[in-house]
Design goal:
Blueprint (H helix, E strand, L loop, with lengths): L2 H13 L2 H8 L3 H15 L4 E4 L2 E4 L1 H25 L7 E7 L1 H8 L3 H7 L3 E7 L13 E4 L8 E9 L1 E6 H7 L13 E3 L29 E2 L3 H9 L4 E5 L9 E4 L8 E8 L6 H17 L4 E2 L1
Parallel strand pairs: 3-4, 3-5, 6-13, 8-9, 8-10
Antiparallel strand pairs: 1-2, 5-12, 6-12, 7-10, 7-11
Helix pairs in contact: 1-2, 1-3, 2-3
Length: 301
């Protein structure tokens, strides 16, 4: 199988069109089309259905694409490992985590890390959906649930504590709840029940204290912990938030301080193939140090 044609096929399958693949490869649309036609002829199978709206992989094309994607992911990983100095970490490092954790806790600490390791080209991919580390969609994941894939290395990073919060302006207007029953008459901000959440038991606030009807009425539902935190900061109502989200926000106060939400365990995760990566080692050690400084008892309490 011709390697150049396979490279062009992979780019077309990723882009969904000859034109966009050509832009990525710096080739003309006609040159890309000729390469794909030649590959199909050599394999004696069609790889794409041609439509006016674009290209769709055939069944044979899907099979080849899965294999090509894995090959190119492995090559990318090998290239990064070969280019990495054993003495000084350098090269690209893609880190994925949830939007809330990445926006509020991780990003403000990036400047210090890059000051220590200026040759690391860091990319943060903030996504509440889990990216596939085995396919090199990211090098490292900081996840709020234990990974289930057997080929991933994981290290417990921290235990996140969750509590109830509201802005001072909301409390001044509506009063401070004294009991769980008082929450029934307050404005509650929560996550949609029918949407996959980034952390377990995210809507515990709606059920704690056994409210009438089994679930409290909400003023707003939004499918982002970061957006919930912004709504709380705006004075809209009471929300359940991880403590790291409100770190340093002097106008946001804890409601019912004796009431604790679920504990969330955060894990530092990466692929087995990157076990000896210097970039991953220094980033892991940096985060462990920052967690210890922020939460001396090892938890976001």
């Amino acid at each position: 199988m011709d390697w150049d044609k396979l490279r062009v096929f992979h780019a077309v399958a990723e882009a969904g069109s000859f034109t966009h693949a050509g832009e990525t490869l710096n080739l003309s649309q006609s040159a890309v089309s000729r390469q794909i036609s030649a590959l199909e002829e050599s394999l004696h199978v069609p790889l794409f259905h041609r439509h006016a709206r674009g290209l769709i992989l055939t069944e044979q094309g899907e099979l080849l694409y899965r294999t090509a994607r894995e090959v190119f992911a492995k090559l990318s990983m090998t290239e990064a490992m070969l280019s990495e100095s054993k003495e000084h970490p350098k090269g690209p490092l893609k880190v994925t985590t949830t939007v809330a954790f990445g926006s509020t806790w991780l990003t403000p600490r990036v400047r210090e890390f890059l000051g220590l390791y200026p040759d690391v080209q860091l990319t943060l991919l903030l996504d509440d959906n889990e990216l596939d580390l085995s396919m090199r969609e990211a090098d490292i994941a900081i996840r709020m649930t234990a990974p289930r894939q057997p080929d991933l290395i994981q290290r417990h990073l921290m235990t996140v504590r969750v509590h109830l919060y509201a802005h001072k302006s909301y409390i001044e207007k509506r009063g401070m709840p004294q009991t769980l029953a008082d929450l029934d008459s307050h404005d509650i901000i929560a996550y949609p029940n029918d949407t996959k959440a980034p952390v377990p038991n995210i809507n515990w606030l709606l059920h704690v204290g056994e409210p009438p009807g089994g679930e409290r009425r909400t003023t707003l539902r939004v499918n982002s912990l970061y957006a919930i935190s912004r709504a709380v900061q705006s004075g809209l109502g009471i929300g359940s938030l991880p403590d790291y989200v409100v770190e340093g926000l002097t106008d946001v106060v804890r409601i019912l301080p004796d009431v604790n939400g679920p504990r969330i365990d955060a894990y530092f995760v990466y692929a087995e193939e990157l076990r000896h990566s210097k970039r991953i080692a220094v980033f892991r050690d940096f985060l462990i140090k920052k967690v210890a400084e922020t939460f001396p008892n090892g938890a976001g309490a």
